[in-house]
Amino acid sequence: MDQIQNELELMAQGAATICQYATSKSDAVERWVKLFGYARAEAESKIERRREDINSTTISMEHWDMIREEKEAEGHDKESYEHSIDLLKHRQHSSQTPKSTAAVAQKRPARFLLKLEGPLQDIKTVQEAASLSCPPKIRQGSDDSGRPVRFCQIDSVARDKIINFVAGKAWAYDLTSNLLPDRTAEKNLSPTSAYPMLGIDGMLPQFRGGDHVLPRDNQYPVWYFFYGTLAQPKVLQSVCGEEQPTWNLHISYIFGGDLKTWGRKYKALVDHEGYAESKAVYGFSYLVVSEEVELALRVYETEKYEVVRCTIHLASGRRIMKGLTFKFVGDEVLEP
């Protein structure tokens, strides 16, 4: 009897879904063509199959009301958003071997900081030595005596090319002492898609262009979502120093992630499998005013984290902001 009852409930849910969408098929076709890049006939076919499939993903109206403003701004209605979830699930399940956080972290290229001095004080010389298409990014710093120094960011491939370049020169120059591992949290936001974004494959077609590329890589001020020690005002002030004029933290929440723990005490935000099924992760939002302040935060979080895009909801009202947060990418064992 329980099995029959469950089947009847599923059929009722499916019928309710069909009735809900039956009057807007033409609008749905136009929307799906624009969002997913389908041909009109393909969009119409997929819509029909979805409305006939009682096992297709549906989210509650309560959940839809929480994210409606954000998703409608992206061009979605409830049905197209549910279809985007099905696409994400299919993409995840089609992978032959799930990628663990550790596996992803191990594949990340090593990053280094090269001190710009001596024969390599000119960034153009470094660019030539490393065979780079554009100059590497410069980072300001200071030595042990407090004097200003400059570094540039390079990867392991560029490092090896620079080593070979220096080896072919008759220079009295100690390269190894000027190469340091880059321990800062990586930030590499795509200019054409939402990638990297918490809980979502930002490279899918529906996440390209428009507001999906916000915030941009060099956009300041920019909102950040904090969930660990950075959510403590004293810690935040000690990290950011005098560069940050205010210390206002706002109670906020995000979707698409799960909070874990590593080292028995450190918080780790990771992707949740299925954005729609994720629960709200509560923390604090904070407006970072400059690249210098952001760099201090990235140094604090270390290479065990990376900067990813997210959508921040203020708990005090219905304001929704495109922002950033730190996602864990280390290889430590995570605990609930």
From TrEMBL:
The keyword Transferase applies. GO terms for molecular function: transferase activity. Gene3D superfamilies: Gamma-glutamyl cyclotransferase-like. The keyword Kinase does not apply. SUPFAM superfamilies: Gamma-glutamyl cyclotransferase-like. Residues 224-320 form the Gamma-glutamylcyclotransferase AIG2-like domain. Keywords: Transferase. Pfam families: GGACT (PF06094). Belongs to the gamma-glutamylcyclotransferase family. This is Putative gamma-glutamylcyclotransferase. It comes from Pestalotiopsis fici (strain W106-1 / CGMCC3.15140). The lineage of its organism: Eukaryota, Fungi, Dikarya, Ascomycota, Pezizomycotina.
